[in-house]
Amino acid sequence: MPVILPVKGKSPQIPNDCFVAENATIVGEVTMGNQCSVWFSAVVRGDVNYIKMGNKVNVQDGAVIHATYKTSPTTIGNNVSIGHNALVHGCTIHDNVLIGMGSIIMDDCVVESNSIIAAGAVVTKNTRVEAGSIYAGVPAKKVKDISKELISGEINRIANNYIEYSSWFKE
Q1: pLDDT (tens place) for every residue of the chain, 171 residues total
Q2: Rounded to two decimals, what is the model's pTM?
Q3: Taking the CB of the first residue and of the last residue of the chain, which one, N or C, has fewer CB atoms within 10 A?
Q4: How far is CA 126 from the centre of its chain?
């Protein structure tokens, strides 16, 4: 059974069509949209501030979503994939974003729509990732504009695949 716990009287809000893996942890003030998934060993900790996720968000294996006490909640838009072992902390992620495996998004960052954060990138505090761009490196910098093919071929494909994958566990 997943660990789903209230903290200070605030309980996670998880629609019935979401998938939560048996060893995932979701605590506190977490609101998930429809068709979301939280995978094996992932942690979504809304204990010190709120976490709000839109529709079709997948939090892949080992990823951590957290916030900063009293100052920086985490807001995630629609159609967002958070790769394996990524850390998303006290930031805003807009719609149609792919956050690569092992990347880190720090406090008060804003990742605008139709963007990709490359695997292993570190997006430092207060960075604004331009819409339609790819950021990579440590610290992460814009490396190029994203093509329409990458939006449909990667961002949308991965988000849709995770809806399919989660259905396998509901059978």
Answers
A1: 899 999 999 999 999 999 999 999 999 999 999 999 999 999 999 999 999 999 999 999 999 999 999 999 999 999 999 999 999 999 999 999 999 999 999 999 999 999 999 999 999 999 999 999 999 999 999 999 998 888 888 899 999 999 999 999 986
A2: 0.96
A3: C
A4: 18
**From CA 128, how far away is CA 154, in angstroms rounded?**
21
**Distance of alpha carbon 42 from alpha carbon 36, whole angstroms:** 13
To the nearest 10°, report the CA torsion of 17, 75, 43, 89. 160
